Amino acid sequence: MGLRTLAKTIANSRPISTLLVLVTTFAGVGLLIDRPKGIVVEWLALPFLAIGGAFFMWIFRRVPRSSAETPNTLASRLLHRLTWGGRLVGLFPAFGAAIIIADLAYNWMQSASPSLQTEDTIALLAAGTLLGYGFVPERYARERDFTLLFFVLLNAFLVAPLLITRVYYADLNKSVDVYSWVALAPQTSGVLTLLGVSNQVHTVSGSTAPGLTFTPEHFSVQVTVVITTACSGIYSFGVFASAFVAFELTEFKRPSTRMWALIVLGFATSYLANVLRMVVIILVGYYSDTPGTDLQNMLLAHSYLGWIIFLGWITLFWSLLLRFTPQESNADVPHELQRRGVLCGICRRELTPTLHGYRCECGSFFHVACASQLEACSNCQRPLKSVALERAQLGG
Asked: What is the separation, in whole angstroms, between the first and last Cα of the chain?
């Protein structure tokens, strides 16, 4: 199979193409906001974002859409209400500029570290989305809404709790390590104990984060790992949670038990993957560190293995979700067509009795509206017969 054939196969399969866009974009955003400094992986953020963005644009340029097509999804209706019936959309650039000015002013006048930190990056990404929202063509409204919701949710999950905590404690520089204390260190300790690794969670002098102390199997010196917010994995969890909720809102037309079940499942498995990530890092240090290697193995695992584990889990979860979960946008399609899987070879949506279809000689099916915008079949490259298309469009 040549590269061109492989590329066409991927582009014509909505689950595969969506998976590639989500995983590459997730990896890029995850590395951008939570860079593992000092290792080569941190330089992969921009390449991942470039690949994901380029593939995204290439896929959706191949999908013919009416410029008047307006998605009727939970996301579109939610944004319509939040923007006061769309009246506030025109002010998005002003909101974006205000966020940039406020963030830079806060760093300059209040922050103990004027350089841009993780939370600053998240806020500035949301500001950039607001600035560019109005320039996205209406036919890409679904993708535009997904991007906006993703960055809004990312700020809600990761930035807002930090600001609320700082206001509560009247300390504009206070770190937030509540997640590590409540939802990560005790659970990691419990799993390690079940695996036979003796350990203890305790406070650490000079730090608000919990420490987890253990003694490596081949190293008689006790080792204490301080689980700060930066190394807790909460940023990866926040990126996944934001992307997943935004995806569900842009794919479902109405709330349903299945939608809520998927959100709960996604959050729960993401959390378990985060605990597993911390457990694996400690186990690497417990079983492999020696006086000769010191703690290098555990440090390498922290820098590389944790990120790889989470990215691998994200790929597995998204692939299973896209493979076995039909999209809500197909809910109005007759069950027989959904079961048969009669899909348009261009837009990858189901054909219905109310929309005339066209069948190429190779056996591929297309909506007439989709096929009429191409000169050749996207599968076999045979010329599409205009006479057959006209008859199909007329219902002949």
From this structure: 38
CA distance 90 to 86: 8
60 neighbors 146 (Cβ within 8 angstroms): no
d(CA 282, CA 300): 11
Cβ–Cβ < 8 Å for 264, 241: no
Residue ranges of domains in the chain, CATH in brackets: 3-173+233-252+311-327 (no CATH), 175-232+253-310 (no CATH), 335-394 (3.30.40.10)
Backbone angles phi, psi at 284, to 5 degrees: -60, -45
Counting other chains too, the contacts that 366-369 makes at CB distance below 8 Å and 24 or more residues apart are: 368/392, 368/393, 369/64
Q: Report which of 107, 105, 100, 102 is spatially closest to residue 173, judged by C-alpha positions.
A: 107
Give yes or no for a contact between 97 and 131, defined as CB atoms under 8 angstroms apart: yes
Condensed to tens digits (0 to 9), the pLDDT of residues 382-391 reads 776 654 444 4
If pLDDT is split at 50, 70 and 90, which confidence band does 232 have?
confident
Q: Give 267-293 pLDDT, tens digit per residue.
A: 888 888 889 888 988 998 899 877 777
C-alpha span between 43 and 41 (Å, rounded):
5
Contact between residue 376 and residue 370 where contact means Cβ atoms under 8 Å apart: no
Tell which residue, 270, 235, 205, has the closest CA to residue 117: 235
pLDDT digits (tens, 9 = 90+) for 324-366: 655 444 433 344 434 444 677 777 676 665 566 777 777 777 7
Distance, in Å, from the CA atom of 54 to the CA atom of 354, rounded to the nearest integer, reads 34
Which residues are 201's β-sheet partners? 212
Would you state the structure tokens that stand for residue 223, as one six-digit string?
A: 């080792």
DSSP state of 360: -
What is the DSSP code (8-state) at residue 70?
Answer: -
| Residue 93: strand, helix, or coil | helix
Map residue 157 onto helix, strand or coil. Answer: helix
Q: What is the mean pLDDT of the chain?
A: 76
Backbone angles phi, psi at 363, to 5 degrees: 100, -5
The pLDDT value recorded for residue 233 is: 77
The alpha-carbon radius of gyration of the chain (Å, integer) is: 25
Q: What is the C-alpha to C-alpha distance for residues 94 and 130, in angstroms, rounded to an integer?
A: 8
Neighbour-count burial of 189, counting CB atoms closer than 10 A to its CB (0-12 exposed, 13-18 middle, 19+ buried) = buried
